[in-house]
Specification:
This protein is an alpha+beta fold and 273 residues long. The protein contains 8 helices and 11 strands. 41% of the residues lie in helices and 25% in strands. The longest helix is centred in the first third of the chain and has 39 residues, at 61-99. It is elongated and about 80 Å long. The termini are far apart.
Length: 273
C-alpha cells in the first residue's frame, strides 16, 4: 500500500519485517493502536510532520493541549471563511432572482499594502477638473525628478463619489521616498508626502469604460457591500489603472475599505419577533 510505504519512509510507522524478495511489508497486531492514533490525528487535520512529533516525543499535557487549541482556532477560522463564502454565494443568487440578471462586474476582497504618496487636495466640480488637477501634480513631480512607482489614485474623504457634484478630492501619486527631496517646500506646501495606510479588507471592483458613466459601478459595489453585510470604514479610493487614450478604454479600480457587520443582534430580534 502506497500510504504505508510512505509512512515507513518518513519513520512514522515501520513494519516489523520486509520480505527481501517481494518487498511486502508485514505489521504486527500490536501496531494497530499506533496506526489508529495516526489516523485519528490526521482526521483532526494535523500534518504528518506534526503527527511524527506527537507520536514520537513525550509531550507534556500542557504542550499537547496547546497544539490542539491552535488546531481548533485554525479550523474555526476555516469554517468562518467558508461560511462567509457561502453567504456571498447566497447573496449572488438573491441578486439574480430579484434583478433577473448577473452582476455586471465582479467584486473582489483583497488586502492593500501601505505606500508612500505625494498628494494634494482640491475642490473639483467635474471629471475634467479632477483630471487636469492630477495632470498638473504629475507634471510638477516629474519636473522635480520625483519618481512615480505605481498608478495614480483619487481619494474621496466624504466616503462617496459624486461625478456631477462639487466635492473635495485628494489626488495621490505613489512615489519613491528617496526621490522626493524637498518637494514639499518647492510646492509651497501645496503637496504633502505621507504614507497611505494599508487596508486589511478592501472591497474592489474593476470598471472598464468612460469615467462619465462610472457612477453605476459605484452603485453596484455599494449594493454588494450592503448585501454581504459589510460596512464601509474609510475613504473611497479610485485607482487609475489606465487613464490615457479613448475614454471608453479607461480601466479603473474602485476601492472601499470594509469590515464585516455584527448581525447577531439584529438576527436575535428577528428570531423573537
Amino acid at each position: 500500500m502506497r500510504t504505508l510505504r510512505y509512512y515507513d519512509e518518513i519513520g512514522l510507522l515501520k513494519p516489523v519485517q520486509v520480505d527481501c524478495t517481494t518487498g511486502y511489508r508485514y505489521y504486527s497486531i500490536d501496531q494497530l493502536p499506533r496506526l489508529n492514533r495516526i489516523l485519528a490525528l490526521k482526521d483532526l487535520g494535523f500534518e504528518l510532520a506534526q503527527i511524527i512529533q506527537l507520536m514520537d516525543e513525550e509531550l507534556p499535557p500542557a504542550q499537547l493541549r496547546g497544539m490542539l487549541r491552535l488546531k481548533q482556532v485554525e479550523l474555526q477560522q476555516r469554517v468562518q471563511a467558508e461560511q462567509e463564502r457561502l453567504a456571498r454565494v447566497e447573496a449572488r443568487l438573491n441578486h439574480i432572482e430579484m434583478e433577473g440578471k448577473n452582476l455586471v462586474h465582479e467584486v473582489v476582497l483583497k488586502k492593500v499594502k501601505p505606500q508612500i504618496v505625494a498628494t494634494s487636495r482640491k475642490i473639483a466640480a467635474s471629471f475634467a477638473h479632477k483630471a487636469q488637477f492630477a495632470s498638473e501634480l504629475r507634471d510638477f513631480l516629474k519636473q522635480n525628478d520625483v519618481k512615480q512607482t505605481d498608478c495614480l489614485l483619487y481619494i474621496y474623504h466624504d466616503g462617496e463619489y459624486h461625478d456631477n457634484d462639487t466635492n473635495m478630492v485628494e489626488v495621490a501619486v505613489p512615489v519613491d521616498s528617496l526621490s522626493v527631496g524637498n518637494i514639499v517646500e518647492r510646492s509651497n506646501g501645496r503637496i504633502t508626502v505621507r504614507e497611505l495606510p494599508g487596508v486589511n479588507t478592501m472591497a474592489t471592483l474593476l470598471y472598464c469604460g468612460s469615467p462619465h458613466t462610472i457612477i453605476e459601478a459605484y452603485q453596484e459595489l455599494g449594493t454588494w457591500i450592503q448585501t454581504n453585510d459589510y460596512s464601509i470604514v474609510g475613504p473611497c479610493r479610485r485607482v487609475c489603472l489606465r487613464n490615457e487614450g479613448d475614454l471608453d478604454a479607461y480601466l479603473t479600480e474602485i476601492q472601499f475599505p470594509v469590515e464585516k457587520r455584527d448581525t447577531s443582534i439584529s438576527k436575535s430580534f428577528t428570531f423573537f419577533s
